[in-house]
Amino acid sequence: MNCVVWIFGRGASIACNLSWVVPAEWISEGRRLQVEKIKAALQKEMDQPTVSTEPYKLLLSELSRRTAPGWLHRFVTTNWDYLLQREISKQSWQVLPTWLEDSHVYHLNGTVESSPGSNTPNLRSPFLLETDRAHERTPSREFGNALQFISWRKHFVVIGMSFVCETDLVFWDLFRRFRESASVGHSSWHIVNPSEEVCARVSECIREALPCSRVTTSHNGFREFVVEGMEELTRWTVLD
Prior knowledge:
By secondary structure, the protein is α/β, with parallel strands linked by helices. The protein has a single domain (2-17, 53-235), classed as Rossmann fold (3-Layer(aba) Sandwich), CATH 3.40.50.1220. The protein has nine helices and six strands. The chain has helices at residues 10-15, 31-46, 54-66, 83-90, 141-151, 169-178, 196-209, 222-227, 231-235; strands at residues 2-8, 71-77, 106-107, 155-159, 188-192, 214-218. The chain has a six-stranded parallel β-sheet. It starts with a strand and ends in a 5-residue tail after the last helix.
């Protein structure tokens, strides 16, 4: 089965009206205290009445309605919030839909979500701050499984991500390592971001790491991209 890997960055959260950022004055505080404060603050922000998972709801609806036979989808995020996982849980599926490879949203930089898995640190990705160095990442089953899966996929959609913080550099290391031997070396990428500058920078980074890849862009926000039909996925024959 072919599978599209969706990688969600902060732009996806902003589309849900979750625009909270770590206050600058917290950065000088001890790491443990900073993580505790971020988790508490983000949980509170996620429950604000202005925050809506509608863009994710629209995406799931369109994928359910339009995904062509033989295609699957998997979701990955570098965000700490769990708005997408929350929307998936609202679907109350009794069995996994035929268009979805996995109902778990893979959080590469950790999550503020409380779950049984969080009691076993080696299963969930560690909580990483934007100021953490890439080499400070400790191994986890979730992180390892996600990157192993990514290395053998050929179709990617990147929503609202700029790949500028240190912790995201793991992507480029992975791609450079496997660009000759794994499927990702000849992959197709579609970058969705309202900023032409960000689209250009991400496209350049992907082409540098994966010279044989194909990169296209949409200068739209997340919701607009879904509402306007996700034309590039139709060209890939992923959507009818």
